[in-house]
Amino acid sequence: MRYRIMPRPDRLGWWLVGTLGLMALALVVVTALLRPVQSGTITAPVAAPVQISFDKRARPYVQAESFADAFFAQGWLHARDRLWQMELFRRAGKGRLAQLLGPSALSTDIEMWRSGVPALAERLQAVASDELRMLVAHYVAGVNSWITAQRVPPVEFMLLGSDIAPWNSADVFALGALMAYQSGNNRTNELVRLALVQKLGIDRAGIFFPREFTDQPSGSELFAARTNTSEFIDDEFSLLQAMVKAELTHAATNPLFSAPAMGSNSWAVAAHLTDSGNALFAFDSHDELGLPNLTYDVHLFVGEQQIRGASVPGLLGVINGFNEFLAWGFTNIGDSQDLYIETVDPANSLRFLGRDGWYEARMETTEIPVQGAPAHALSIVYTENGRLVSEQPPISMRWAPLEPHTDGLDALLQLNRATSFAAFNQAMDKFVAPSANVTYADVTGRVAQRSIGLLPLRGAGAGLLPQNGAAPDTAWQRMLAARELPRLDLPQQDYVYAANQPFHAQGTSQQPSQKPSQIPSQIPSQIGRGALVSADNAPGYRVERIGRMLRQQRLHSVTTMQALQNDHFNPQARKVLPAMLITMGTKPQGALAEQVMAMLQVWLRQPLDTADAPEPLIFHVWYQHLIETLFREPLGEPLYRRLLARSYLLNEAVDKHLLNGSTNGWPIKAALINSFSRTLEQLSSEHGTDPRLWRWGDHHQLHLTHTMSGAFAGSQLLFDRSMGEASGGNATVGRARFDHRAPFRVSGGATSRMVLEMSQPIQAYMIMPGGQSGRPSSQYYNDQSQAWLSGAYDDVSEPPAAPASVVHLMPGQYQAEVPK
User: What pLDDT, on a 0 to 100 scale, did the predictor assign at position 697?
Assistant: First the structure.
């Protein structure tokens, strides 16, 4: 989904569109001639001189005497290179996109307010420590210093004719709230599962639920669906409308605010299992791909202290990274949102049926400014189960970070500056949102992992379906304490790894009660009756592959870490393709079918999703046709399209069919035969009848798009970059995710790759798609993509000995002094 932030051609006329295109081209030329300061001296409100050295990729290495000055420099850098991206982020987090983009963005603002994102931003600011407030103020001062003295604004602002409003501290906390929501947003999954139960019935819909939550005698999700929800909602249209609203708040379907969702890979290897005798750490964050890239690399040096890694423009510090002692990386895991179906008094829309009888809900009103239109008055209704996010059907949402708490972004700052394992744990004990797994390694050789964030102890259900808002057993019991969340932190841990699954470990040589055999590989970690981190997880393909490769190698190195980050082995195909071939049962008819079957059998020995191979194309097209054959007709087009957007649910259902041999009324064998025939027809029609010439890369393409793409004639040429074919897929560790609604265009992947050797000093290697700059005219706009595609890395261990450029910030009022 892309917003058109300029009028459509049929309204303006093609002559005006062409004029706008020429104007845009002229603006890009102007911005190319008037680029931001690349080197020189700048007087700025800093307490002491600050030096910023840039390497060949324009990564900044900031040398400052205080963190206040270092964060000032980071704010200045973010604004210089990513101001348009920052603008969208802060407006999304504050529910103010329509003020910039007009009525087309109003529905998004409404859903952000109803979901509570601006409310969380206010709470994060309210609980911030005095030190954090001070450092945020310095970061904001850096942003505003650049805004005030800029020679030419980013081209996006000029095209919109929009002024750049100064930043304030609330904008930074809005970024924190937006990131928390994006990483915990599973409300759409609950709605889709409910619609599937309604459409298909309990038995047939069971394939869309994890096995461990469908066979409990009572209190299970399906039992709850049968007794509590199906009698409340039988209007498929209204349920689909609730899904549409939910999708407005999801980065995968609304790229205007694709803040980090922490869908990532992360692992660490202890020192005694490496060839160097130092621990190794690897992390790659998986998010929506586009331009500019989601993250921005930054390296802050304050005396002997460091804060380094991948930052989010608009937020001080780094999200995933390292300092002089330790490294950390977040992978999304926890389910912190639950939906409740409410019963409303037909005579009074504010009267709800609660667990103790009827009650009057609270209502607040806020105004949302809209560019070119009157402000919109929005009423937000608060039930005893949270905010009402849908009136028809009446559904409320409870979100853990909105529960009372006294911690906030201080935890991230403490993590950035932690220089001991104890300090790391103290910071993580205070982490509110998002709920995640965090992987750890340090220079002593230690590795560890733990779950963090506010999570509920539920009553009935496991967070997979909306619950009856009036049922006594569906209420949250309390919030889990940090000590109750799973962790693996034995001193002699061999290695830890995570990929959006409950975490894994091997080689726990102490405390036998925590041996890895007692840690389930596929089911959520549980604490007592009904308490769990998440039941709504990614398929285990990536995490199983990571674990297998870590176990197979006797000693690990930076090279093996980098190779694993770029691994294109398809564990899903290895697991389900034999079942697909066996279930078909009959010998394929025709020479082409026999040849293709023989090729797949050989490929199964080493199923690599490489761009130049035909077999991954055959497998993925067959799997795609199987999805359509199974689900399109029974679900109907609207619900089918919603299901296509939920790839984890699709994998859960299709792969369970294939591996368990239970049909539950689904014609799996006939569907496999039919979809295989359609695959051969499609590929022979598109690429000829010699399957050896078919190539995965001809379909699996990477095209990096900008939020302004499609806004006017020629905008794609100015803003977008086509990178061509890509290896990998949805299930590979070296991920190149595609959306089943638009197969097989690459839509997501590693927005940052980082491999560290935890020596003293730490040896660091990083790469990203796109580049540091958000300006299309910059040479650093897309200069890293080819290296990223090829699996290459840059050594970022030390500030460059021969910088590409240097900027000096000198105490005083802001003024740039640029050499001629």
Answer: 97
Token pair, residue 633, equals: 């007709």
Burial of 316 (0-12, 13-18, 19+ CB in 10 A): buried
Strands of 337-341's sheet in order across: 362-370, 373-383, 386-390, 395-399, 337-341, 467-468
Condensed to tens digits (0 to 9), the pLDDT of residues 57-110 reads: 999 999 999 999 999 999 999 999 999 999 999 999 999 999 999 998 999 999
**Whole-angstrom distance between the N-terminal and C-terminal Cα of the chain?**
45
Between CA 66 and CA 48 the distance in angstroms is 8
How far apart CA 272 and CA 274 sit, in angstroms, is 6
**Given a cut of 50, is residue 1 above it in pLDDT?**
no
Q: Residues near 287 by Cβ (< 8 Å), separated by ≥ 6?
A: 251, 258, 260, 261, 263, 294, 748, 751
Task: List the beta strands (DSSP E) in 411-553.
Answer: 436-442, 447-452, 456-457, 467-468, 478-479, 487-488, 495-498, 504-506
- Core vs surface per residue 229-266: b (16+ CB within 10 A) or e: bbebbeeeeebbbbbebbbbbbbbbbbbbbbbbbbbbb
What is the rounded radius of gyration, in angstroms, for the C-alpha atoms of the chain? 26
Give the Å distances, CA to CA, from 332 to 90, 433, 436, 754. 22, 10, 4, 17
Give the integer Cα–Cα distance in Å for 795 and 784.
Answer: 13
- Digit-coded pLDDT (tens) for 674-721: 999 999 999 999 999 999 999 999 999 999 999 888 777 788 899 999
Task: Write the CB contacts of 436 (distance below 8 Å, at least 6 apart in sequence).
Answer: 183, 262, 330, 331, 332, 333, 334, 451, 452, 453
How does pLDDT run across 539-549, given as a tens digit for each residue?
Answer: 889 999 999 99
